[in-house]
Amino acid sequence: MAGDRETLAEWVGREILPHERDLRIWLQRRFVAAVDVEDIVQECYCRLAQLSDVTRIAEPRAYLFTIARNFARQQRKRASVVRLETLSDTFDAEIESSALTPERIASARQDLGRLQEALATLSERARRIFIMRKVDGLSQKEIANALGVSEAIVENDASRSLRAVLKLMTVPEPETVMPAGNRHARSH
């Protein structure tokens, strides 16, 4: 399984990441407001991370754009539904209270912890590039100018960083098992 995740991460870095800038521009021009672009791009990466086999994807760029288009359409549909739902304050309160369950908060904290651990494995420059690209949404050119490096370095570091982070984020967490001698320790 680890080999499959590594293969997937390499495939994403090689076949998908080079098209991210074009995807963002395409989304902004055709479908969504700039503030929603990042969400759609991240959803695309999440969907890609769930793939078990990429050998049947003949056109990775077209596949990426199709995923993004579908997410954009879903987002538009949800937005129109949300506008109708806002007529009822009570209903909104119920949605909000169910959305932030302790389980979801704990899961989000675990995911954040795993992301921080993954980022800690990167070099300082690679980590900065990753954050500037994925969090701040800067272009490769903007990052290169800010860091005083070439765009090729930014592209290479961003690609390697994304592969490393995807690899670490998609590896299932091991189950925590209590040692046999400790199972009854609290009952005494």
Task: Describe the protein's architecture and organization.
Mean pLDDT is 76; it is low at 80-92 and 182-188. The protein is built from nine helices and no strands. It is mainly alpha-helical. 73% of the residues lie in helices and 0% in strands. The termini are far apart.
The topology string of helices and strands comes to HHHHHHHHH
Strand content: under 5%
Overall pLDDT = 76
From the helix content, strand content and strand pairing, which structural class follows? mainly alpha
Which key phrases capture this entry?
single chain; 188 residues; mainly alpha; 73% helix; globular; disordered C terminus
How would you sum up this structure in a few lines?
With 188 residues, this protein is an all-alpha fold. The protein has 9 helices and no strands. The radius of gyration is 20 Å and the shape is globular.
Give the SSE layout.
Layout: H1 2-16, H2 20-30, H3 34-49, H4 60-85, H5 89-99, H6 102-120, H7 124-134, H8 140-147, H9 151-170
